[in-house]
Each structure stands twice: as C-alpha cells, then as structure tokens.
Amino acid sequence: MKKILLINPWIYDFSAFDLWLKPIGLLYISSFLEKRGFRISYLDCLDRYHNALNEERSKSVNRKYGTGRFHAEVVEKPDTIKSIPRRFKRFGIPYSIVRKELRKEKDADVILITSVMTYWYQGVFEMIKLLRKEIPDAKIILGGIYPTLLTEHALKESGADVVIPGLDFYPLLRELGDNEEKGFMPEEFFNTFSPAYHLYERLPYVSMLTSLGCPFHCTYCVSNLLVKRFFTLSHEKILDEFDVYVKKLKVKDIAFCDDALLYNSEKHFLPLFEEVIKRKYSVRFHTPNGINARFITKDVAEILYKCNFKTIRIGLESCQGDFQKVTGGKVTNEEISIAVSNLAAAGIPKENIGIYIMAGREDEKIDDVIKTLRFVMHLGTKVFVSEYSPVPGSIDWKRVENFKRLDPIWQNNSIAFLKNGWTFEEMQKVKDIKNQINRTD
Question: Residue 441's pLDDT is what?
C-alpha cells in the first residue's frame, strides 16, 4: 500500500500566534486515509511541541490555555511588499529541522499539503520547493482553503503536481489510485471520521468542529463558499470525540472552530452540552472563532458557565447600524448588550468575554471604528481588532477591483488596509485605544 506524507506548512507573515491553530481538515483526511489502509506519516510545521524542538524553547513560548508563540525566523520580504517597514518571518519549526525530518520520509509515494490563508501561499511554495529536493519522486497534491479560493493562482504558481479545490474527496481518491466509485458528501464524511490527533507526540489542546458551514451570508465571509450547506454533526460522534480527547489524550483545552456554534441551539448546543455537564469532563472550552450574540440567551449563558467556557469571543464588527445591515445583518447593538448581560448574570467574568470589531475597510473610517471601540468599552468586556482584508469569493470581493490586480500577499490583514485608504498611524491609533480598554476593563 502507498505511503502518504501529510504536511501542514509554515506560515510566512509579519506576525502569527498559536491560538489553538490546528489543520483540522488535514487531520480528518489523515484519519480517512488510515482507515482505507494507506501508510500515513505526518508533519505539522506549526507544532510547537514537536520532539525535535528542545525543551527550553518549548517552555519559553507557552501562554495561557495551551496557546503560545511560534518559533520564528526572519526571512527576506517578497519584492511586492519590500516597502513595508516591518520584518517578515517564517513561523514554525526551523527550516533546518524540517529538512532533517523530510529526509526520514524518502519512501513517501504521495505528499498531501494543506493551506489556509490565501496570503500564506509562500509557505506552501517554499515547502514544495524543499520537497522537490528531498523527495523528488513523490507526487505532490495541494488542497485546502488557498487553492479553493484562488484555484488558478495555485495551478499556475504553486509547483504542485495536482491541485484539488473544495471538499470533494473523490478526486483525491482517484489520484491515490483508489477505485472508489463515488466520493463522500461533506455531511457523511465529517460524521464518519474524526481528526487524527493521535499523530501528535504531545498535545496540550485540540481544535474541533460540532458543525460546518454557516446559515448567515455576511459580505466579508466565504463560509458559504467553502461549505455549501450548514449542518451539525451527530451528538453521539461529538461526545465520542470528547471522550477520546479528555480521557485518552488527556487534553485540558478544547477550542471550537464552528462558524455557527449556537445556531438552532435548542436542538444542538443545549442538549449536547447538557450531556457534557453530566459527564463531568475536567476540561476548559474556548470559542476563538466567535459566536453570535443573537443566540446567547439566558439558558445558553448558563450552559457556557457550567461547562467551563473560559474564552468567549463574540462577533460585532461595527456598532454602525447601516454597516450592520449592508454586511448581512448578523447582529445588532441591542443583541450584543443583551448577550453580555446574560453572560455576566450567569457568572462569567467580563475579562473572559471578548468582542471582535473590524478596522481598515474602505467604507468605514477611523472615527467610525473609534465609536465602536467606545461602545464596547461601555460594555466592560475586552475588545479585539480584526484588521480587514477582502477574501476572494466573498460578496465584498466583487467590488474590490484593485485587490484583484494585486499579488495575493496583499490580502494579508496586516497590510490590506493600506490599499483601502488607511495609514499605519490610523491603525496604530485604533490599537492603542483597544489596548487602553483592555487594560482598564
């Protein structure tokens, strides 16, 4: 049977932080391929606990609840962003160590590489170049979010032998020589397999899904493009995963990557986590992707508290009513206020609650963002600024002709605002106000 090496490549960026960042899609595929009998090997270049890293380095980058800083090496900036006055880095396991690890995989027949942000493509390209040197005879297959959103760019520039966009697993089986007549539909696939976390040597946390897709259609998001239809996973399967993570793998922190964790909560979230309470798991839960304030009722807030949710993030984006309506009507100021009140009444400390707001859009100026910052300040929670960048395929993307002509690296949220009429000074002012709020809440 063929040996398949699965790789999560480095991040090339100005900054990066391990906020429960795991390649969930690649781990699902690993489990799927294992069960079909393929020999599997796995390399996550963003694994801060990899055995090849010395103990001192591992300890020095740890933060709260299993999060932490990646090892970073300064690299030369691409020509298109040479003028940006910030250092560009490769985040993850050092290049020299990755090279040594790859030399142990000379017998790999096929290499699967995943990808996330479109503007992180450089990590993908550098990995493919290295693989051509170290394992020249292997077929390289690229998948993930980047080739799904920028398929032509990936086909033309990546150097991969095969590019597979989307969630259709039949093309992957075909490339691996598996004669399966049909692939899995996403709902069947994700209800059948679980992320292969056993492939990690050390694991302080896991990231997981209880649902895929999103019932909302925010103009700045592509969740509906990546997963065509919203669906939840079976409670039995989710609880089985909890048992594995907590009892077998002994993790202390679980982060949810759902885009709509609380949607239809009476049928999904509430009964699921009422069972979690009965099982008395010794674990902390986190929602780094953000949850919808509209669904944080008193009952939901009480369950969040009883289940030990320590990191609660809520998406607001802007307190401007017109902005909220134009971008999809996901939430209102009143719903945000009620949600925070419900969480506080349930016993959740406000320092555990954070509200995401957006800055750097061409249709919102700094004064608008400052108004939103002040709105959050009065709520007494923490605030987190998401620097806006248009995502290929989103509704917003249709009106940003300037970005379509630029190298995808300009989709990086650290610099995209420069193409929207914002300055570094304006963005820094927003961050300074954000830091003041978070110090005094």
Answer: 43
Residues of the chain with pLDDT under 70: 54-61, 179-183, 440-441
CATH code assigned at 152: 3.40.50.280
- Cα 262 from Cα 180, distance rounded (Å): 36
For residues 210 and 131, membership in a common domain is answered with no
| Residue closest to 145 by CA, chosen among 45, 233, 225 | 225
Q: What is the pLDDT of residue 3?
A: 96
pLDDT, tens digit, for every residue of 44-60? 999 999 988 865 454 44
- Spatial separation of the C-alpha atoms in residues 364 and 312, rounded to whole Å: 26
Extract the tokens encoding 61.
């980058």
- The domain boundary residue, chosen from 175, 190, 217: 175
Q: State whether 302 and 364 are in the same domain.
A: yes
Res 112: pLDDT = 98
Helices (H) and strands (E) in the chain, counts: 17, 16
Provide long-range contacts, Cβ within 8 A and 24+ apart, for 69-77: 69/17, 69/18, 70/11, 70/16, 70/17, 70/18, 70/46, 72/16, 75/12
Q: Is residue 263 part of a domain?
A: yes
Instruction: Please report which residue ranges of 168-320 form alpha helices under DSSP H.
Output: 170-175, 186-192, 223-226, 235-243, 269-279, 298-306
Instruction: Give the count of domains, the chain.
Output: 2
Q: Note whether residue 192 is domain-resident.
A: no
Q: Is 250 left (phi over 0), alpha (psi -120 to 50) or beta?
A: left
The owner of tokens 């608008």 is 368
pLDDT tens profile 94-119: 999 999 999 999 999 999 999 999 99
Please tell me the pTM assigned to this model. Answer: 0.95
Residues 153 and 210 reside in one and the same domain: no
What are the start-end ranges of the H helices in 307-360? 321-326, 333-346
301: domain range? Answer: 204-440
Contacts of 243 (CB under 8 A, 6+ apart): 279
Contacts of 388 (CB under 8 A, 6+ apart): 220, 358, 359, 360, 361, 413, 416, 417, 420
